[in-house]
Amino acid sequence: MSTGNAMVTVLAFVLALVIGGVLIAAVDPDVTKAAGYFFSRPGDLLSAAWSAVASAYAALFRGAVFDYQADTFALAIRPLTETMTTATPLIIASLGVAVAFRAGLFNIGAQGQVILGAIVSGYIGFTYHLPAGVAVLLALLGGIAGGALWGGIAGVLKARTGAHEVIVTIMLNYVATNLLAWLLTTKAFIGTNGEPKSITVLPHAQLPLLFGSQFRVTWGFVIAILASVAVWWLMSRSRLGFQLRAVGSNPAASRTAGISVQRMTIYVMLISGALAGLAGAVQLLGTSKYITDGIAGTIGFDAITVALLGRSKPLGIFFAGLLYGGLSAGGRFMEVVTGTPIDIVLVLQALVVLFVAAPALVRTIFRIPAPSGELKGAAA
Amino acid sequence: MKLELRGITKRFGPLVANDHIDLVIEPGQIHALLGENGAGKSTLMNVLFGLYEPDEGEIAIDDAVAKFSGPADALAAGIGMVHQHFMLVPVFTVAESVMLGHESTRRGGLLDLDAARAKVRELSDRFGFDVNPDAVIEDLPVGVQQRVEIIKAMARDARVLILDEPTAVLTPQETDELIEIMRQLREAGTSIVFITHKLREVRAVADVITVIRHGKVVGTAEPSAPETELAAMMVGRAVSLELDKAPAEPGDVALEVQDLLVLDPTGARVVDDVSFEVRAGEILAVAGVQGNGQSELVEALLGLETPLRGSVRLGGEELVGLSVRQVLDKGVGFVPEDRSHDGLVGEFSVAENLVLDLLFDERYRRGLSVDLAAVQANATARIEEYDIRTRGPAQPAGRLSGGNQQKVVVARELSRPLKLFVASQPTRGVDVGSIEFLHRRIVSERDVGTAVLIVSTELDEVSALADRIAVMYRGRVVGVVPGDTPRDVLGLMMAGVPLDDAQRQAAENPTTETLLEEGEAP
Amino acid sequence: MSTVVEKPAPTPAPVPAPAAQSVSVRPSLRIPIILGVLALVALAVFGFGAKSGVDSTFGLSLRADAVQLSPLVVASRPTAIVLGVLCVAIAAFAFWQAVKHRRTPAWLLAVFGVLWVFAFLVWAVAGKATSLVDLLQGSLLLAVPLAFGAFGGVLCERAGVVNIAIEGQLLVGAFAAAVVASVTGNVYAGLLAAPVAGWLLGLLLALFTVKYAVNQIIVGVVLNVLAVGLTSFLFSAVLKPNAATLNTPPLMKPIGIPLLEKIPLLGPVLFDQTVIVYAMYVAVVVLTVLLFRTRWGLRVRAVGEHPEAADTVGIDVNRTRWRNVLAGSATAGFGGAFLTIGYVGQFGQEMSGGRGYIALAAMILGRWTPIGSLGAALLFGFATKLASALSVLGTPVPSQFMLMLPYVLTIFAVAGFVGRVRAPAASGVPYLKG
């Protein structure tokens, strides 16, 4: 079963690259020009399209993994470390989304939770002068608490009133966005800055670099690895995880077995939000250092797709996060080198997830027979 | 209209639900399709109704082959169906429900609700139904909903009406009324396919009986055939419906329920001042037609539902107000009535399901973790002890057959020392072999001194297991009677008649069921 | 035949039906309590909190209007206090009604809302002036994309498919309208292109949710990403370099409706608008009639509430869902046109800016009905317009909090604090048969 899954994932990625390639070629000026005289020299069109796509994807690879044209080894592997940097908050937030998924809840609100995490950790980070180890630890904990609070609201409302978590978390995203916008007008956050940009986090509260000053990778990456292991233990080994999964799979039977569905709902959203909040803290304390209204970027939304791509399993998410990080890092590089807009990366990401979510479609496209019993078995 | 099924075969993956079934329904006949739960009756009717496409075989109407690609074709051919789970939109009115799918419209394409209302009134009057066309479905009692379903079929001029387990939700008296309706329809020329697993009803009303077992037609029978013969055909071997059990040796009162009152969300009393007690070492069966408060009673005992007032004491300790977890910890074992919904997590392995409510048991905990080795060892032992047919402890429980799923639930609940064992519909949808096994396990749990409370809608099961019987009707306990109370008296009590009246009326005015038992088939 | 049914003699006398009688349940005081708290806020904060000795001025006409009305000037503090007292009175009435197990009529709640908002306005505008016409007109315009998005949501969800992709549909609609209107130089060509773009996105939504039964929320979220990616990519790669030919659409011009536009205050607000606004008026009526009065609507609602039941009377569930998803997506796409050719003109990256999610909220708050959706969209439009008006005036409430209002209201709504909301029962559940 898992080999089938892996193949579908690979094929989904291939399909996405093909469609992305068509788009890249379609807007390329050389291709457009060659299309003008397609009937006299059709070969020109193909070669122009090929070179447009090939150079774009080559740049994507160079920006994401290994720049084989770089002068020094450090510069050559720098893209990989950029990928790790970009992937770090994605992996952590995505773990949060996945915990909720496994418990049968859709946390569409990772974005808001990331923002809250950044707000609280930032406030601690630039307000309190604390000793080295304590400052960063406290700021991280603050981020966790901020995210947990935001997730917890949705959890409590779901548990107490049955309010659908999808709607509540979507709405909380926008409440968080506006809250941040307001905070970035207050003196406590921006100090003497004339623009909506917070005070920079004090050095003691920043996450230390992992591989020295040549690379931007911080200890946040280690935190992402630790978080992955912790979530694995939580979901596969712990009693709490057993109950969370039971509630996710069959709430009625869980209730009958003495598991409090309401309490689990609250726990799940607290944990899920906490992880997203940690992601916001790591992004702020490690990478951005100060808060702007774009602090969360699209981490919270990407986390959803990463969780889907990683099939909500920690190891899968770790690699899916790296893949996404790579696409983003590579996309920035590609935009500079070949002028292909980075937004093509969003298209690729969306397509991969769509195809992964519909294995039957991928099988139809590649004419692979369905594994026996998958479709019919469900009916029986 | 003569309807013929020729060599119908329907498979779901490896499971053959229907295996070359041949069936002829003659015009103006009540044709009973008798079979156990899971024998393939409903699948066959879904094929006939166009909901499933058969893998092999064909349907013929008046000797011409008909091809149904969906219910629309079946309806157009004059086939109507009343499904076991009613196919009514809860927020629609009766008129909207009846017109849905063949709506008449006025100018401008607007719905002609008046025409629908008139149609409902006409059919309602013709069969004496008394159904208000403007009533909203979700406010109607199940019996009335069933009548709406029949009106729905008749409004489309159905000439063959399929009734899928129509009596499951009815009292014996309502069943009698339905039987009369069926006869009326037959007089009017409608053919009826009557799907059931209840022998008495079949013998009361059927013209022809076809028996299905494991997806195959195993034979036909006359309505006059003795009940034991029909039962034997249905289950495949001669069965004794009786269970050999020693008389109970009741000890002290274990469970004491007093003035328990449970309201549903609309404020109606679903459990209405119920009081009874169960002693250690005895089986009390709660009998009643489905939906008379038994489910809510059990849920209140377990802490799944909060009673408005009243008390539930186990060994003198109050259970009301405790969480489900705490109630289970007091030594209560519980088998819910819908096992796949409430008893098992289908995606979880058999091993995980066998400890679903035992996670906090010392045997399976190791710090904050689950002791996977202990879980595995427990699974191996329980599978062996209960003869659970599985491909191994790691198989998802949802893939097991009904009987084996129920064994998993019962095995789990009986795998720890209990003071009270509560089982709702312990053998619903379970094959006969497993029924005997489960019944024996329940009796042996009683014999070690556990108080046992069984809730069942099957009188056969109630009679086989019970030491005493509490009959519930509309949330009340109509009476508590000895385990050997005659079926006819129980039937009347299930319709709300108090014990004394029931005994008198049963003597003066025997029901179909009694008549059949006495051999006076109509 | 000696059968049961003929039994003439003693009908069994069942015990009196106890199920019918209901025990007195504690009255639900939720609504009165909410009203009470709000009323006290109105009285204490807006009333007694208002500056004394100043006036609040509300403009009632725009300079271009045919009929000029003199501005409404009220003494801030006394007016706000009176409005607050009225609010308290209504809350007290609602409380009394609840104790007597009667429901407070909806129109009274609406009156309460209007009074409360006016109390707020009087307080916020104390000592200053604002234009009521501008406020109302702005609210209406801001509500247009929300309303169409919500209508699109209603069409999908009534058939049992959750449409989270409204955001993406608005965006592709805005994009297509801008490009086509620029290329053809004709706004109406753009107006036609927008629903086509929404329809195409709907094709994907239906393909994945109906045919492949992928989780509808996942597909919606991902389609939004896809829409952002596609439009941004094309914007950067094609529109930006060729802005003059591809991204300079003409704007729709308001068309006054004779006579109606002359009505004081309401005329200019409601009846001197662009075609797309009139389309909104028409859509709400047409959709309401279609959904609740026609065969099509009955069938759609059956499919969304109980697809098995619909199937058993011969309704093709998945075909109905396909059609509705496509129609709903096209409707949302049509609304997207307003963002470009109806309002701003040029297309900009991610210009839908979360309006699709507010539209979703409007649909929920409007209880899955077209009229309710329009009402909620207008409310949200008003909140947004008010936020910008107040930020200009520099009143005590930060505009960000006003902008939060739609979201907070929706959270309250789904949490059941403001009445029960009930989604179509089968919404979000794929329909699979054996």
Summarize the structure.
The complex is a heterotrimer of chains A (380), B (522) and C (434). Chain A is mostly helical and 380 residues long. Chain A has helices at residues 2-27, 29-36, 42-64, 73-102, 110-127, 132-161, 165-183, 187-190, 220-236, 239-249, 251-256, 261-288, 299-309, 314-338, 344-357, 359-366, 374-379.
Q: Report the CATH topology name of the largest domain in chain C.
A: ABC transporter involved in vitamin B12 uptake, BtuC
**Distinct helical segment count of chain C:** 16
Oligomer: heterotrimer
Q: Write down the overall geometry of chain C.
A: globular
Question: What would your notes on this structure say?
Answer:
The complex is a heterotrimer of chains A (380), B (522) and C (434). Chain A is an all-alpha fold and 380 residues long. Helix content of chain A is 75%, strand content 0%. Chain A contains 17 helices and no strands. In chain A, α5 (110-127) runs parallel beside α7 (165-183), α6 (132-161) crosses α7 and α9 (220-236) runs antiparallel to α14. Chain A has a domain at 91-319. With 522 residues, chain B is an alpha/beta fold. In chain B, α13 (372-386) crosses α14 and α17 crosses α18. The two termini of chain B are 25 Å apart. Residues 512-522 of chain B have low confidence and may be disordered. In chain C, strands 2-1-3 form a 3-stranded mixed sheet. A two-stranded antiparallel ribbon of chain C has the order 4-5. Chain C has 2 domains: 30-127, no CATH class; 132-417, ABC transporter involved in vitamin B12 uptake, BtuC (Orthogonal Bundle). Chain C has helices at 30-47, 76-99, 106-124, 132-158, 166-184, 187-211, 216-239, 243-246, 266-270, 275-293, 295-305, 307-312, 317-344, 355-365, 370-393, 399-414; strands at residues 55-59, 72-75, 129-131, 255-256, 272-273. Chains B and C meet through α2, α6, β12 and α18 of B and α11 and α12 of C.
Blueprint of the fold:
The complex is a heterotrimer of chains A (about 375), B (about 525) and C (about 425).
Chain A (H helix, E strand, L loop, with lengths): L1 H26 L1 H8 L5 H23 L8 H30 L7 H18 L4 H30 L3 H19 L3 H4 L29 H17 L2 H11 L1 H6 L4 H28 L10 H11 L4 H25 L5 H14 L1 H8 L7 H6 L1
Helix pairs in contact in A: 1-3, 1-15, 1-16, 2-3, 3-14, 4-9, 4-12, 4-13, 4-14, 5-6, 5-7, 5-12, 5-13, 6-7, 6-12, 9-10, 9-14, 10-12, 13-14, 13-15
Chain B lengths: L2 E10 L2 E11 L4 E6 L5 H8 L7 E6 L2 E3 L4 H6 L2 E4 L11 H6 L13 H14 L15 H14 L4 E5 L7 H16 L3 E6 L2 H7 L2 E6 L2 E6 L5 H9 L17 E11 L5 E11 L3 E5 L6 H9 L6 E6 L2 E2 L5 H6 L2 E4 L3 H5 L6 H4 L11 E2 L2 E2 L1 H15 L15 H12 L6 E5 L7 H16 L3 E6 L2 H7 L2 E6 L2 E7 L4 H8 L4 H10 L3 H6 L5
Parallel strand pairs in B: 3-8, 3-9, 6-7, 7-8, 13-20, 13-21, 16-19, 19-20
Antiparallel strand pairs in B: 1-2, 1-4, 4-5, 9-10, 11-12, 11-14, 14-15, 17-18, 21-22
Chain C lengths: L29 H18 L7 E5 L12 E4 H24 L6 H19 L4 E3 H27 L7 H19 L2 H25 L4 H24 L3 H4 L8 E2 L9 H5 L1 E2 L1 H19 L1 H11 L1 H6 L4 H28 L10 H11 L4 H24 L5 H16 L20
Parallel strand pairs in C: 1-3
Antiparallel strand pairs in C: 1-2, 4-5
Helix pairs in contact in C: 1-2, 1-3, 2-3, 4-5, 4-10, 4-13, 4-14, 4-15, 5-6, 5-7, 5-13, 5-14, 6-7, 6-13, 10-11, 14-15, 14-16, 15-16
